[in-house]
């Protein structure tokens, strides 16, 4: 009706053009036209910069020019208002990182699509990802003692791509993390460069593990493994699918989500056992064994001990077939521990004896001592104190060759209990006194500071869990 107020704006109506869009577009077109050809080409290729972030190394890779030339061009584009500083000033006074303004992202992308051949854009992205992988490898290299091959690779690397020390590499990682993660997401979701994307995901994961604590890295690692799973599914790479699912399961387990981890491990087992198709070589026994053992570990964490024992038992023949004595001993020990929780001490005794025998054949004296200690505990539980005393003494003799003071203290206490049951009060008192002394020594040793490197893992195998 005449004079009625206008309807309020509703979602879905055409957006009212921003009055600034037209002059901005005209100014941008004029500046782009006025730029030297190499600078204009770099500007267009910056549409490929991950999260709109770029430094001299990425810019040089995008256009295929030396790093100093790229640094000068970035400064020129910044002077024209086409880039904004996004980092700290370097020794030359220039920012170490730049950002494409959000108001220009669409226009730069349109220029790229209109003026660059699709093949050139793909090559530029490939060069950029290759440079990112190289920088990441250098970032990881300063955290470890390089092998001969890695040392040769580092020596051949230009000085500008290397890091002087761990602190410099860690600082670079902090400032580049958003761009690195964005590059990984784009490479994985776009497709077309899946081989490079897989290398990027693997190298970035290793760098995060090397420089961050498990809690700091977990969320980002989870996202990277999901991207690896996406590529594996797209390329039908079932071995890599199994590996990604195992890693996701480990991350779920480390975050206190055992049920989610169990689903991941079961899916990994299915992938590792499944038909691999013409591009694969067959069932990966290592992935199958690890999936079986991880399922068992998760059931143990959930307190479902009989299921844990069953799944450890399923993994055992695979280690036996490979002649993996360390794995055989570990799995026998875990079967014994799971059965002990269910009260099946006779079966647990047999499992721990088998574990001790495997560790003896492998030459792992500390692991053999731990297994014998569990044998003695089981013998005591089934009413064989004399045998438990002899076995415990054997375990103690082996343990005294090692540095595990707490294990020796535990063995002394076990021997004291056995001596009590046999009416040998003096021997029991001597064992308890020795256990107290060993416990005090262990506590003093643990209080001394020790340098430790950050590690990552949620289910580290032990000799006898």
Q: What's a concise summary of this model?
A:
By secondary structure, the protein is mainly alpha-helical. The protein has helices spanning 21-34, 37-45, 56-63, 67-79, 102-115, 118-141, 148-156, 166-190, 194-211, 214-235, 238-254, 258-273, 285-301, 305-322, 325-341, 345-362, 365-381, 385-399, 405-421, 425-447; strands spanning 53-54, 84-85, 98-99.
Overview of this protein structure:
With 465 residues, the chain is mostly helical. It has a three-stranded antiparallel beta sheet with strand order 1-3-2. Helix 11 (238-254) runs antiparallel to helix 12. It has 20 helices and three strands. The chain has a domain at 25-116: Orthogonal Bundle (Arc Repressor Mutant, subunit A), CATH 1.10.10. The chain is elongated, with a radius of gyration of 31 Å. It is 71% helix and 1% strand. The chain starts with 20 loop residues before the first helix and ends in an 18-residue tail after the last helix. Residues 455-465 have a biased composition (Polar residues). It comes from Streptomyces hainanensis. Pfam families: TPR_12. InterPro entries: TPR-like_helical_dom_sf, TPR_rpt. Residues 439-449 have a biased composition (Basic and acidic residues).
What's the pLDDT, averaged over the residues?
Answer: 86
Total E-strand runs: 3
Helices and strands, in N-to-C order?
Answer: HHEHHEEHHHHHHHHHHHHHHHH
DSSP helix count? 20
Evaluate the radius of gyration: 31 Å
Strand content: under 5%
Backbone shape: elongated
User: Which spans have pLDDT < 50 for at least 5 consecutive residues?
Assistant: 1-17, 276-281, 450-465
CATH superfamily of the domain at 25-116: Winged helix-like DNA-binding domain superfamily/Winged helix DNA-binding domain
Q: Largest sheet, if any? A: 3 strands, antiparallel
Text of the CATH class of the domain at 25-116: Mainly Alpha
Category from helices, strands and their pairing: mainly alpha
Biggest sheet, spatial arrangement of strands: 1-3-2
Question: What gap, in angstroms, lies between the N and C termini?
Answer: 82 Å
The CATH topology annotation of the domain at 25-116 reads as: Arc Repressor Mutant, subunit A
**What helical percentage do the residues reach?**
over 70%
Please give the CATH architecture of the domain at 25-116. Answer: Orthogonal Bundle
Biased composition (Basic and acidic residues): 439-449
Protein name: Tetratricopeptide repeat protein
Organism: Streptomyces hainanensis
Biased composition (Polar residues): 455-465
């Amino acid at each position: 009706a005449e004079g009625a107020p206008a309807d309020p704006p509703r979602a879905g109506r055409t957006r009212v053009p921003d009055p600034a869009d037209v002059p901005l577009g005209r100014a941008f077109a004029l500046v782009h036209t006025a730029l030297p050809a190499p600078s204009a080409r770099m500007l267009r290729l910056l549409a490929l910069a991950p999260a709109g972030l770029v430094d001299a190394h990425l810019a040089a890779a995008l256009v295929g020019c030396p790093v100093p030339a790229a640094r000068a061009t970035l400064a020129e584009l910044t002077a024209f208002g086409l880039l904004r500083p996004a980092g700290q000033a370097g020794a030359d006074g220039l920012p170490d990182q730049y950002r494409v303004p959000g108001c220009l992202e669409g226009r730069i992308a349109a220029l790229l699509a209109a003026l660059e051949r699709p093949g050139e854009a793909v090559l530029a992205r490939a060069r950029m990802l290759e440079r990112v992988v190289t920088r990441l490898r250098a970032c990881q290299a300063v955290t470890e003692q390089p092998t001969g091959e890695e040392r040769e690779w580092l020596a051949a690397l230009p000085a500008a791509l290397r890091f002087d020390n761990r602190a410099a590499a860690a600082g670079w990682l902090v400032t580049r993390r958003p761009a690195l993660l964005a590059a990984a997401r784009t490479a994985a979701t776009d497709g077309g460069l899946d081989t490079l994307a897989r290398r990027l995901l693997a190298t970035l994961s290793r760098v995060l593990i090397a420089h961050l604590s498990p809690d700091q890295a977990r969320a980002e690692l989870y996202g990277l493994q999901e991207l690896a799973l996406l590529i594996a599914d797209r390329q039908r790479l079932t071995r890599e699918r199994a590996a990604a699912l195992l890693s996701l399961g480990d991350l779920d387990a480390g975050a206190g989500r055992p049920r989610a981890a169990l689903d991941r491990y079961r899916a990994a087992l299915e992938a590792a056992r499944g038909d691999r198709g013409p591009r694969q070589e067959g069932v990966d026994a290592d992935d199958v064994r690890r999936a079986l053992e991880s399922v068992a570990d998760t059931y143990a964490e959930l307190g479902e001990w009989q299921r844990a024992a069953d799944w450890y038992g399923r993994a055992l023949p695979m280690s036996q077939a490979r002649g993996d004595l360390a794995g055989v001993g570990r799995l026998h020990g875990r079967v014994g521990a799971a059965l002990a929780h269910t009260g099946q001490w006779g079966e647990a005794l047999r499992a721990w004896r088998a574990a001790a025998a495997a560790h003896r054949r492998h030459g792992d004296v500390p692991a053999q001592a731990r297994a014998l200690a569990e044998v003695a505990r089981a013998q005591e539980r089934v009413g064989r104190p004399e045998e438990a005393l002899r076995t415990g003494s054997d375990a103690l003799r082996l343990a005294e060759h090692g540095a595990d003071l707490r294990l020796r203290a535990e063995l002394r206490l076990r021997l004291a209990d056995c001596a009590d049951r046999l009416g040998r009060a003096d021997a029991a008192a001597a064992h308890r006194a020795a256990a107290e002394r060993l416990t005090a020594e262990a506590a003093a040793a643990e209080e001394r500071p020790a340098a430790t490197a950050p590690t990552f893992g949620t289910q580290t195998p032990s000799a006898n869990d």
